Amino acid sequence: MISGQISIIIVSYNSVELLPACFASLATTNDDNYQLIVVDNASSDGSAELVRQHYPQVTLIANQHNHGFGAACNQGMEVATGEYFVFFNPDVQITPNWLTILRQHLHEHPQAAIICPTTLYPNQAPPTRQGVAMTAAVPGCALLLRRSAWQAIGGFDPKIFLYWEDTELCWRAWLLGWQVLEDFEALVVHERGGSGGGQRWLVESSKNGLYSYLKLRPWSAVFGYSVRMLAKTVIVSLRQRNLAMFKLWIWHLKNLKQTLATRRAIQAQVTADRNAVERLIKQHLARGKRERNARMKDEG
């Protein structure tokens, strides 16, 4: 077995009904060299009290305010002792050898910063493909990050409260010379869709998407995405008779100077082939669109 402790960081927000099953699932892993950290984002349902009273082996950070997913993950990283970090959602269920496989495959690819198991829907068949593959981005529900990569590229962007924080981290890793891998042999099951919904989260997701483009993508891609977001803003506003979507543009106008400064700082550090990274991102976005359309067709 490849050595090196793994710190599993779970961000909870009103997750008291999920945490016992989450801990029980993690206990079935055949790789027990891990540290458990829970960062509770000011839950009102007793999540922090549950961990404090019934799981003394878990390191608990109990926030007085909800800092969002990425910032909470960063808090967990600050106290983590592992050589690797896993960011783990409380509604994810694991398979026994998932951690062993992830650790082994990351060890075999020293240029990889991030690796993520295949995240299945409940009752979804596992992939027939074996091994790993490079991909532009992976979901943040169970991704593993190398400590040395975190030190080189930084953690999650705290300006992103929820949605897009995993994609932004992966794109940034690629630009700074690291790789991101998806693992077809390590498997977890994720219900998905429980983090939020409604108008607020549509605005948040749209804001963060444009922010990630402004920070990391070529200006041609930024222009195209901005036009699509503007069209989406108008359509949603007219359909719902609600101007909430315009909040994302107000936020960007207020923060544009700082965003552009961040963009310049990152671009100055880029070591990767930008064209190769762009091809990978475009392939990943196209694949995501195909998969969403296929799910909608199956559900319809």
Quick description:
The protein has helices spanning 19-26, 47-54, 69-79, 98-108, 147-153, 165-175, 199-216, 219-240, 247-267, 274-299, and strands at 6-12, 34-41, 59-63, 84-88, 92-94, 112-120, 132-134, 142-146, 179-190.
Please describe what this structure looks like:
- This protein is an alpha/beta fold and 300 residues long.
- The chain is built from ten helices and nine strands.
- The chain has helices at residues 19-26, 47-54, 69-79, 98-108, 147-153, 165-175, 199-216, 219-240, 247-267, 274-299; strands at 6-12, 34-41, 59-63, 84-88, 92-94, 112-120, 132-134, 142-146, 179-190.
- Strands 1, 2, 3, 4, 5, 6, 7, 8 and 9 form a nine-stranded mixed beta sheet that branches.
- α7 runs parallel beside α9.
- The longest helix is centred in the C-terminal third of the chain and has 26 residues, at 274-299.
- It is globular and about 50 Å long.
- It starts with 5 loop residues before the first strand and ends with a helix.
- The relative contact order is 0.12.
List the helices and strands and how they pair.
Elements: E1 6-12, H1 19-26, E2 34-41, H2 47-54, E3 59-63, H3 69-79, E4 84-88, E5 92-94, H4 98-108, E6 112-120, E7 132-134, E8 142-146, H5 147-153, H6 165-175, E9 179-190, H7 199-216, H8 219-240, H9 247-267, H10 274-299
Parallel strand pairs: 1-2, 1-4, 2-3, 6-9
Antiparallel strand pairs: 4-8, 5-9, 6-8, 7-9
